[in-house]
Write a structure and sequence with these properties.
alpha/beta; 7-stranded parallel beta sheet; 18 helices; about 15% strand
Length: about 575
């Protein structure tokens, strides 16, 4: 891997003794500081945090030590690193934590976390003090189906809000002034230098985080495509997490900058981008749900207008006026192309928000994890219980309780005839376990971890049940159909692109359970109709596959960038 610093052999050997994940977190933190502080030698103190914390790598706490040294933690490793960054412009220390300026003492306090730490550990450490949140959780746990009627009203309202005009976000060009008229954070613009002729060619891949998710799976694939096109991948993330995917071999020869917010920058300047553009010939930027990159797109286009910026969008969120698609619309002035994976998103951008049609391309993720060209129907073993599977993160969006309530309904109607598998982990693990125990379904629902081989789960499946309250087009639907397994899904997002009416269920939980029970009861007793459902879905998938795939489109685009 390419780095921007030097350490002595003894310190390098110590770092190499860390796990691969921790090594890359440390290297990312040191690379970040070395990029923005060319020529400086800094001392790095590494601390081991608790499982319920997240790593702190580049934020202002790494300067102040307020959650490490000032809390009495003792570093388990101390070393010095000298920047060998070839940045052409200097960066004067000018850090803020809120409105307080932080002095730079030439020391960086880096907090790591144990390799076995999970998001669940973090969630469990945050006590719920709000009476409203406690009431919400109590209602969700005690009457999940009835409570979802209330939630669906809120979802419908937010869907309407998401269609209202989104103002364009313009680059700020004035000082940040408080209510007293005092300048708090002066606007400081530094004109960046240009990379010398013959500099290495690179593409920035701006990801959400190094963790599992549909957007992340596609982002990881684009890293491979960038490398295959002859570019150096520079991968930047901006979301807190334990970052388990950072050890993935796909990142072995990439430049990795896992940033934690707030990063050390100032209004009007982006020191890390400035340093990168001064040392690399950066042809383009691919944005995958990375808020920091959206916020800095104006800087790139102001100083390097020839650099192409392309974002990939997967799902219109109910929150925040549409989630990342909202950010895409708001920053449209600085974006050259919006890649979407479903007709729903294409319609939302063009029809609801008047994005120029020539700036939107629908290139589905067909072929990303499965091949739909020559699949065959997976015959059911009639001597075994009918197996229904859930594959995905255990999070609110995926609505695990609707799957569990469906299992409860089927066990009541057909005792011993059905077996259910839930594969995935997330912050609703404890909630799902509680519901399974409450309804006496431990022998009916099998739990599998996210890292269990998904191919084996499809091999065991007779149907995939998608219980989500919101989706684009699920990768699991594509995978299941390609594995010969029919899909039953909530009628959300663009699922209707792949799933015919006879396989769709109404969105509200009580209706979803009713409809899912009806479909499952039918195909339990009619293998021919189970086959017909799959054949209808396969035909839709193959028609959808006639669109140029995301992989093919990005291969062609990156080749054009390189040529």
């Amino acid at each position: 891997m390419r780095h921007f610093f030097q350490v002595d052999e003894k310190d390098a050997a110590q770092i190499e003794n860390l796990s691969k994940r921790m090594q890359r977190l440390v290297y990312g933190a040191v690379d970040y500081n070395s990029l923005i502080q060319p020529g400086r030698t800094l001392t790095y103190k590494l601390y081991m945090g608790e499982k319920w914390q997240y790593p702190r790598l580049t934020d202002t706490s790494t300067l102040s030590g307020d959650i490490t040294e000032q809390m009495g933690l003792v570093p388990f490793m101390v070393f010095k690193a000298t920047s060998v960054s070839r940045s052409q412009t200097d960066f004067s220390p000018h850090y803020f934590a809120g409105d307080d300026q932080i002095l730079d003492h030439n020391v960086r306090h880096i907090l790591l976390t144990p390799d076995e730490a999970t998001d669940k550990d973090v969630e469990l450490n945050h006590p719920i003090d709000s009476k409203a949140v406690k009431l919400y959780n109590a209602l969700e746990a005690s009457v999940p189906a009835a409570f979802d009627v209330f939630r669906d009203m809120k979802r419908a309202l937010r869907e309407n809000i998401g269609k209202k005009p989104i103002p364009q976000i313009m680059a700020r060009t004035a000082d940040n002034v408080n209510n007293a008229g005092e300048v708090q954070h002066p606007w400081v613009e530094i004109t960046p230098g240009k990379a010398p002729k013959g500099s290495p060619r690179a593409v920035i891949v701006a990801m959400h985080w190094f963790q599992a998710g549909g957007a992340e799976r596609w982002a990881l694939e684009t890293v491979k495509l960038v490398r295959a096109a002859g570019f150096i991948p520079i991968v930047i993330t901006d979301r807190d997490g334990h970052q388990p995917w950072i050890a993935n071999p796909a990142f072995d020869d990439a430049i990795l900058l896992p940033m934690t917010m707030p990063v050390q920058e100032r209004p009007g300047d982006s020191p890390v981008l400035r340093a990168l553009f001064e040392q690399f010939d950066i042809a383009g930027i691919l944005i995958h749900h990375c808020q920091w990159m959206y916020d800095n797109a104006w800087w790139v286009k102001t100083h390097f207008p020839q650099t192409r910026i392309v974002d990939s969008l997967h799902i219109v969120e109910y929150y925040f006026h549409g989630g990342f698609p909202k950010e895409s619309v708001a920053h449209d002035e600085w974006i050259d192309l919006h890649h979407v994976i479903s007709p729903q998103l294409e319609h939302w951008l063009i029809n609801d928000h008047q994005i120029a049609p020539e700036k939107v391309v629908d290139a589905p993720l067909v072929g990303l994890t499965a091949d739909a060209k020559t699949p065959s129907f997976k015959e059911r073993d009639a001597d075994k219980p009918f197996t229904v599977v859930y594959i995905g993160r255990m999070v609110r969006q995926k609505r695990p309780e609707a799957f569990i309530l469906t299992a409860k309904a089927m066990q009541s109607a057909y005792p011993g005839k059905f077996h259910f598998i839930m594969q995935g982990n997330g912050d609703m693990d404890a909630f799902a376990d509680m519901m399974i125990k409450r309804y006496g379904l431990k022998d009916v629902i099998e739990r599998r971890a996210l890292d269990f081989p998904v191919r084996e789960t499809y091999h065991d499946a007779d149907a995939l049940l998608v219980s989500s309250i919101n989706e684009g087009i699920t990768l699991t639907s594509i995978e299941a159909i390609s594995a010969g397994v029919p899909v039953i899904s909530a009628n959300v997002g663009s699922q209707e692109t792949l799933i015919p009416p006879k396989g769709l269920c109404r969105r509200i939980t009580s209706n979803f359970v009713h409809d899912a029970k009806s479909v499952l009861s039918h195909i339990l007793n009619s293998e021919e109709d189970r086959r017909k459902l799959w054949e209808s879905e396969l035909a839709r998938l193959q028609k959808f596959s006639e669109l140029e795939s995301a992989e093919a489109y990005f291969k062609k685009m990156l080749k054009e960038w390189h040529d």
